[in-house]
Write a structure and sequence with these properties.
Helix content: 25-40%
Structural class: alpha/beta
Distance between the termini: 39 Å
Number of strands: 16
Number of helices: 13
Strand content: 15-25%
Largest sheet: 6 strands, mixed
Strand order of the largest sheet: 1-4-3-2-5-6
């Protein structure tokens, strides 16, 4: 197998990006109790349909204008793209937004809005290779405090569409496209999924609660508009007095994968797409395998779930009970199996001093077991199996191929070799 060619292929690059997204998702799901956010002042927040009172003055950079004439922009669809330099998705969509502005120059205007200071933004644009490669030069409102109060958020990107002096949409960036821009400009209004990081999710209504009608039970639903994504949470519900298990606006695959972790079905390896067996008719309804923006895909395919119990159980037992709900109500289950596949096997070898090129800043791994876990997480290579069992500290710099990696590993008497191994996999299976 030519690993270098495989890594350079477009298909592999897309897969790596998607695997990375899922791994980040799984890491966020590992805690059943969501972290408490700091209190945010929502007293000045605007909603869809409200009149937009623009700031009297903004600090503007990367613009030919010294100030913004908001009145003159009322005949254009204006996008306020809420942004911070630590947001990878925000950076990724910038070229797309710039192309939309060029395509619809007569009816569409983009402003990047950030609370960060001018020097931070200057340094960011100077150093970011991706944006320089795509020649991104959108106007930036920096040092913002006013707009952040009107449109508060917990997570970004967040897209605000203004038209005719009103807030027309508070949504996710995936819905900013030519069709929606033209529709809003032509019809003067548009109904887009609401992004509300402070929306409270509940699949039961107040009447049922007030009448004491909720004793126990399960509710399985789809996408909840205006509700932020929530990973699995097990808690005592203050409204009903019952023990509540809940998840909102997640992919079916993500929901099952994190459940499997909680149920301790698959705690021994990194979850990767190449370690998942799909025994289903159509895997695209379980996870976004297309190039469609995830926020758009979720509107049609997200799952939301609530379970109310009169008794409390351990997290692992509760997770297994919920997995039974997925079988009984949705007809899908997840379980661990094994499969023989190509793996990067770490083995012992004769020690060879490294005398190659400078590999840059090195990371230290306490043994090959830790190194194997990290290599698995990066998904640069096939699933990693540690047969070397070396416990000494290993320092490794940058590498692009197995050959690059092995040159450094040889100094510790270790090498990686692609061989067939029987390894654990997670099966997603539809049942009758």
């Amino acid at each position: 197998m030519n690993v270098k060619q495989t890594l350079e292929s477009k298909e592999m690059m897309i897969k790596k990006i998607k695997i990375g997204i899922v791994l980040i998702y799984i890491m966020s799901c590992m805690s059943l109790a969501a972290q408490q956010s700091k209190v945010v002042d929502l007293s000045q927040r605007l909603n869809v349909g409200d009149i937009f009172n623009p700031p009297a003055k903004v600090q503007l950079m990367r613009s030919t204008d010294e100030k913004i004439d908001w009145k003159a922009l009322e005949d254009k669809v204006v996008l306020l793209d809420l942004f911070e330099t630590t947001c990878g998705t925000c950076i990724q969509i910038m070229p797309h937004l710039q192309e939309l502005q060029k395509k619809h120059v007569d009816i569409f205007k983009v402003f990047v809005v950030t609370p960060q200071d001018k020097q931070t933004m200057v340094d960011f644009f100077k150093k970011n290779k991706y944006l320089k490669e795509h020649k991104v030069n959108l106007p930036v409102i920096y040092g913002d405090n006013y707009l952040r109060k009107l449109f508060p958020y917990k997570s970004i990107p967040q897209a605000i569409l203004l038209y005719k002096g009103k807030v027309q949409a508070i949504t996710s960036s995936g819905f900013i496209n030519s069709e929606n821009i033209q529709q809003l400009h032509k019809e003067g209004k548009i109904a887009l999924p609401l992004k509300d990081d402070f929306g409270k999710a509940s699949l039961i209504n107040d009447q049922n609660i007030d009448n004491g009608g909720i004793k126990a039970g399960v509710i399985f639903s789809g996408y909840q508009n205006g509700v932020d994504y929530q990973p699995w949470r097990f808690e005592l519900d203050s409204l009903t007095g019952l023990h509540k298990s809940s998840l909102y606006n997640a992919s079916m695959y993500g929901a099952l994968l994190s459940l499997a972790s909680q149920a301790k079905i698959k705690a021994s390896y990194v979850p990767r797409f190449d370690r998942v067996i799909w025994n289903v008719k159509d895997s695209t309804k379980y996870e976004n395998f297309s190039e469609q923006p995830s926020d758009v895909w979720l509107v049609d395919h997200a799952v939301s779930y609530e379970r109310y119990d009169m008794r409390i159980r351990t997290d692992s037992i509760q997770a297994r009970i919920i997995m039974d709900d997925f079988v009984n109500l949705y007809g899908v289950r997840a379980y661990e199996s094994t499969k023989k596949m190509p793996c990067l096997v770490l083995k012992k070898c004769p020690v060879v001093d490294y005398d190659g090129k400078d590999v840059g800043r090195k990371m230290t791994y306490v043994g090959t077991a830790v190194l194997a876990g990290f290599l698995d997480y990066t998904t640069l290579f096939p699933p990693v199996v540690d047969e070397a069992k070396v416990e000494t500290r290993i320092q490794i710099g940058t590498y692009a191929t197995i050959e690059d990696l092995n040159q450094q590993l040889a100094a510790y008497g270790v090498k990686g070799q692609v061989e067939q191994r029987e390894i654990k996999v997670l099966v997603i299976e539809e049942v009758d």
